[in-house]
Amino acid sequence: MMDHWLIMPVLLPMTAAILMLLTAHMGRTVKRCISLLAMSGLVLVAIVLLNATLAGEYQVYAVGNWVAPFGIVLVLDRLSALMVLLTSVLALFSLLYACNGQDRDGRHFHVLFHMQLMGLNGAFLTGDLFNLFVFFEILLIASYGLLLHGGGPQRSRAGLHYVILNLAGSGLFLIAVGTLYGILGTLNMADLAVKVAQADPEQLRLIHISALLLMVVFGLKAALLPLYFWLPNAYGVASAPVAALFAIMTKVGVYSIIRVFMLVFGIEAGALANLAQPWLLPLGLVTLALGAFGVLASRCLRKQVAYLVVVSVGTLIAGVGLLSVESMAASLYYLMHSTLITGGLFLLADIIVRQRGDVGSELRTGPTVTQPLLLSTMFFIGALAVVGLPPLSGFIGKLLLLQSAVQQPGVAWFWSVILIASFFALIALSRTGSTLFLKTDDTAITGVRMESVSLLAVTALLLSSPLLAIYGDAVSGFTTATAEQLMQPMQYIEGVLGPQQASAAALTEGG
């Protein structure tokens, strides 16, 4: 019975999107009700799925009852359950914020929103590389429409760059997938892990090239150097609820790197074992450094928050690149923190911008906001969290990352870049807070007040930081168990294919 819950994170948003298309003539209120009900149901499903992983077992759903590797399978483990829950919580409050009026700017906002959720959840749950491509395309097509939601020349320009880059990435993804299938005859990720470990020497070069193409594609999705330049412009001009939801989009790329390069090209991959590890740490640190410079140099509030997303991606990839249980557990803790906090900051930035009149998002002297005490307090909490100052979750996440690097060869670089980047972020956000709330002119206050629904959405996301700190032991315990599970790819292979195939792979490695 539990197995059938596995497909619900894909079916529920898809069904909601279809219902909203069929009831489009009934008005926006009906759409909002369907959308919020489906979103609330998705959060409950995600909680049930997360609870099902606590015993450490793999749940496999064979679509059409065709078992792996011949059929399409969805696979639930601790990592996929965590990502589905994180997506659902972020999406719920982003949607709640949108229902306060920003969903009026586009006719099919709710349909696109749920189609993107379908793509996101499918990408996290799929056990098949081709279906990872399919779900990537679903979420990307929906994101094209959401990015352009509300129109305007800035969004059109950023949307054009975003579409072109992602179409190029999709082409490379398809080439890599086709090459792997042509060589190995399978795209099931567990079966690929077995076949890559058993590959003949003459096949290794093409498999290696395909793996590097996948690394480029996932790096583009994650916004890694040198493929991150699209992100600040795209996220900086998107509407607030869309930008908040997009905070999880880069994590799809991070998730794909973790899943594919720790399972298919991980420690059991023979000659191609740990293929991505030499690249991840330097790429992560340079991305982190350039993202921090972007935060420091930004003269636009929304773009500054977008650069904070780049910083979080660089930090995550650097942590993953250390390739230890401790660093992976710390990275997953930091992933939860950074996703929810940057999502909340996108929503908060929108409220501040709408209360600054013509000055808008520009970081220069402007009118006093309508609710200075409330907004300055919320900005202070968000800034403390995202910079990584105690006692909030950002501090815990970065401390865990720093501790995990103590025994690593590149510890000096790792510590230096993370601490200097945090210092730059502290300077930048201190200057931003001063500009927004202290260095104001005598212009009359004309901005709109934050309504209760918007306040609830922003507060819920920002309060995730103290909650992650308060329940830090339980959360870090789960992330540690998740990291240990990831470091044992043979368990995944056995869970999906059965013990015989796993034994065959182990014998191949041993021989």
Please give a handful of descriptors for the protein shown.
single chain, 511 residues, mainly alpha, two-stranded antiparallel ribbon, 23 helices, 73% helix, 2% strand
Characterize the structure shown.
There is one protein chain. This protein has 511 residues and is an all-alpha fold. It has a domain at 276-470. Helix content is 73%, strand content 2%. The protein has helices at residues 2-5, 8-22, 28-52, 78-98, 109-125, 129-147, 153-184, 189-197, 204-222, 230-237, 240-246, 249-263, 277-297, 301-321, 325-354, 372-387, 393-404, 411-437, 452-462, 464-470, 472-486, 489-497, 499-510; strands at 59-62, 73-76. Strands 1-2 form a two-stranded antiparallel sheet. Helix 5 packs antiparallel against helix 6 (129-147). The radius of gyration is 22 Å and the shape is globular. The protein starts with a helix and ends with a helix. Mean pLDDT is 89; it is low at 505-511.
